[in-house]
Each structure stands twice: as C-alpha cells, then as structure tokens.
From TrEMBL:
UniProt-listed InterPro entries: Homeodomain-like_sf (IPR009057), HTH-type_Tx_Regulator (IPR050624), HTH_TetR (IPR001647)
Protein name: Putative dihydroxyacetone kinase regulator
UniProt-listed PROSITE patterns: HTH_TETR_2 (PS50977)
SUPFAM superfamilies: Homeodomain-like (SSF46689)
GO molecular function: DNA binding; kinase activity
Organism in which the protein naturally occurs: Weissella cibaria
One Pfam family of this chain: TetR_N
Start-end of DNA-binding region: 27-46
Organism placement in taxonomy: Bacteria, Bacillati, Bacillota, Bacilli, Lactobacillales
Amino acid sequence: MKTESAPAKIKIAFTQLMQQNTFDKITVAAIVKAAGINRGTFYLHYEDKYALVEILAADLLSAIQQIVHDNPGSQSEILTPTGTHSLLTYLYGERQLLRGLLFSGADLQFQYKLKLILLENVQVKLHGLPEIYAKEMIVAHFMSVILLWLQRDCQEPIDQIAPLLQTGTMSDDWHALYHHN
C-alpha cells in the first residue's frame, strides 16, 4: 500500500486548517501536526507557510491556465462549453483549497492572477464598445459567478452553473445597451 507523499499530506492539512482559521492564525507547527509529519520534513519542501501558499497557488493557476488555453471560446467567450465544464470540474475538486486561498487571506493576489488568465484568453469582436471594457465585463461576470459558487461551497451542481458562465458572453442584448440610437 502506497502512502501519501509529504507534500500531499501538507496540502491536505493546510487546506483543512484554512477551513477553520484565517491564514495569519495558521502556523507551521499546526500544519505539521495535522499532516502527521515533523517540522524537518516540512522544511525540506517549503521555506515557510508563505512559500507553501505560493507553490499551491501557482499549481492551481497553472492547471487553470492549461484548461483555459486548451479550450478557447469563440468570439466573446472565455471558454467553450466543454472547457467551462472542465474548468468547473477542476475547481470543484480543488474547492476547499480555492476557498482558503480566496477567502482566508492566504493569497491576496490569487483572484487578480486568475482574472489575468481569463482576460488573456477572452476574444472580443468590437461593435462600438471599447475592447478593454468588453473584456472586463465578460471576465467580471465569469469571475463573480465562480466566486459566489465557491463561497457557497459549490452547492449547485456543475451542470447548473456552467450555463450561467456562458450567459456572460457579449450577446446582442449586451450590444443593444451601447447602440441605442
């Protein structure tokens, strides 16, 4: 029987601790106790709890970026419907860690970094609306739905959330708001 690696144990322990405490209240001592490892093992992998957060956040963002890159949406979409489902499935699987990073003060830049990934991948065909604002509107909608879903601990099923993300595209209704002569 294969045992979990130390980094996997640390990730699980840290994720659990973030559900109970804010980041500033979590100590390396608490992490190693919850992980069932010694401090030396922790320090073999991470310089401190800040390095742990940096690595965990980078891993999440890298996986998200790969999903977004592999499933680019068409005009005025961030992702294809399949890509949206893949992203939500990934987020659901990592929801506890994401909730900790986003809402416990662990990584104050995580939300901004996620937004940048989405902004880089949205394509907008201009119809009189400045591209920078069109992109921001699409990404803001996408982010607000995801953040609310995560805040609610992913209570709604993925198949219910996915269509909400697709409605944030620049539809004719959105264009009508800016072309009412």
